[in-house]
Amino acid sequence: MMQSIICEIREKLKHVFPSFLNPPATELEIQSVEKQMNLIFPEQLRALYLLHNGENENGPGLFFGLPFLTLEDMLQEWKIWADLEEEYALEGDSYSIPTNYIKERYINRNWIPISKDYGGNHIGIDNDPDVKGSCGQVINFGRDEEIKYVIAEQLSDLLEFINHTLKNKKYTIHHEEDYTYWSYGANQNIHFLDVIRSLELPVLKPIKSGNSDIVIKNWLEQLDNQWLEIIKERVNNPIDFVKIKKLYLMSENLTNIEPLTKCTEVRELILSGNHITTLEPLKNMLSLKKLYLAHTPITDLHVLTNLEHLQFLNINRTKVKDCTQLAKLPSLKELDMHETEIVEYTALSQCKSLETLSISIYNVKQLEAVSTIHTLKHLKIFEMNDFSEDDLNLLGKLTQLQSLELINSHLTGLDGLKSSQTLREIKLKDTTIEDGTFLGKITSLKALELNHSSIQNLSVVAMSESLERFTGSFSQFNILKDLFHRKIDFSTIIGEMTDEESDIWHQFLG
Fold first, then answer.
1. Cys-Cys with 110: which of 20, 86, 128, 407 at CB 3.0–4.6 Å?
2. Three-state SS at 44
3. pTM of the model as a whole
4. Is the distance from CB of 420 to CB of 397 less than 8 angstroms?
């Protein structure tokens, strides 16, 4: 099958471009690359390289202007990403379209680049799909490819799509000095990784949204001027609005979000700063991953229990009074609920995936509830005041905690944290701690930031054997700079410095 498709493509392309596909790779060459990658090529990928080992450097780009990489170039690109994977695999936001087809990561060493755009982005073969995907599916990934699409269910489908495009003459040839290339679409010069966002995907076997053109047309005719203007600002073709994946509607003065009932493909939605009182129109956004509702008068979250993929939720400064529904969100990893009217936090311990929490704590009962969320890795607390040292020791129960941020708080100390084996970063903002002795005893602590905050016995920080970076005011830096017996990163100062202070700081940094 692969051979017949490639033969047809070659036959059509020879009338447009000089021969540019390289001779075949050998089985030994493929096996050498597989060994270095520690993976096995899917059958169709192997078959393609046994026909052609990429294209020559003067080629027009087999994939609509993007080059077909040789095995050597493939391995070189792959190594760049593999070297970064350990530190940056989960960096930023990643979205799979369709949901659950591609693992939502920034880097995955099992993505095999077969093309590149010279800007850090690729067409690749997915050798490690998510639960609904299939090994060998063709995807996009890279530096700018936050949203990852299943371009084709298999490599032969993408090649057949190229074949059909040639047959239908739905392409454009471009000449630039000594270089000739082509692009998808008649009379267009659009990067193919941008084109895929408007194609029906996967190519040849698109997944239908369930909204017919007639349904969408009727829906559009019923929209008021406010919504028509919103759509006009975001898409060129109104029909494309229902396919939108990231929708930012912050402070649009909305009271009615009923038009969102048709936007079932949204993965990230911002509704903060509007006047909405119901979330009912979101009940069919089954793929929603991130939802911002801050500064809205929302009171009820029951509709969200239908959203099994929801990972991030911001309800700060809403009118929500009950968080029990959150326990029914199996994927919830990050929650911002500070300054809400919620009093009882007990249900949060049932959020089995919760790792990041921003919350206001006003009493011991709330603190006890938070201390039982054993999955927490990142905790930001607002308004924690008037607690005894015994009460604060409850935070020591959070044995997976990696970062702690305290805002607008006043504490005697946090001795309960001194035996932590995981806490790497502490940030204080507009906060006072009377006794910072515990900071010198946390053996995992790497970074401390004091933003308009104070520790009354600040010099005890120099007792830390693990601290690597300190961020604070000049006066705090000046107290600590000569107390450590090793090099500490003091490269950031918070607040202004006089010329004399700036000279001292720069001289210290060398």
1. 128
2. helix
3. 0.92
4. no
What Rg value do the Cα atoms of the chain yield, rounded?
Answer: 28
Residue 7, SS3 per DSSP: helix
CB atoms within 10 A of CB 472: 26
Buried-exposed string 137-146: b where 16+ CB fall within 10 A, e elsewhere: bbbbbbeebb
- Write the DSSP symbol of residue 124: E
pLDDT at 461: 97
Map residue 330 onto helix, strand or coil: coil
Q: What is the DSSP letter of 149?
A: E
Q: Block means of pLDDT (10 residues each) for the chain, length 510 residues?
A: 94 92 98 98 98 96 98 98 96 94 98 97 98 98 97 98 96 90 91 94 88 82 95 91 95 96 95 98 96 98 96 98 96 97 96 97 96 97 93 96 97 94 98 96 98 97 97 98 96 97 96
Interior angle at CA 483, CA 478 and CA 486, nearest 5: 115
CA angle 273, 370, 349 (to 5 degrees): 95
DSSP string, 153-187: SSHHHHHHHHHHHHHTT-EEEEEETTEEEEEESTT
Query: 365-410, pLDDT tens digit by residue?
Result: 999 999 999 999 999 999 999 899 899 999 999 999 999 999 999 9
The pLDDT of residue 319 is 97
Look at strands 469-471 and 111-116 and give their pairing.
unpaired
* Contact status, residue 229 vs residue 251, Cβ threshold 8 Å: no
Single-letter code of the amino acid located at 64: F
pLDDT attached to residue 213: 76
Judged by DSSP in three states, 398 sits in coil
Amino acid making up residue 37: M
Which residues sit opposite 371 in a β-bridge?
Answer: none
Distant-in-sequence contacts of 328-335, Cβ < 8 A, 24+ apart: 329/304, 329/305, 335/359
Give tens-digit pLDDT for 314-339: 999 999 999 999 999 999 999 999 99
Closest CA to 268 of 248, 282, 294: 248
Polymer length in residues for the chain: 510
Q: Which of 474, 398, 399, 470 is nearest to 436 (CA)?
A: 470
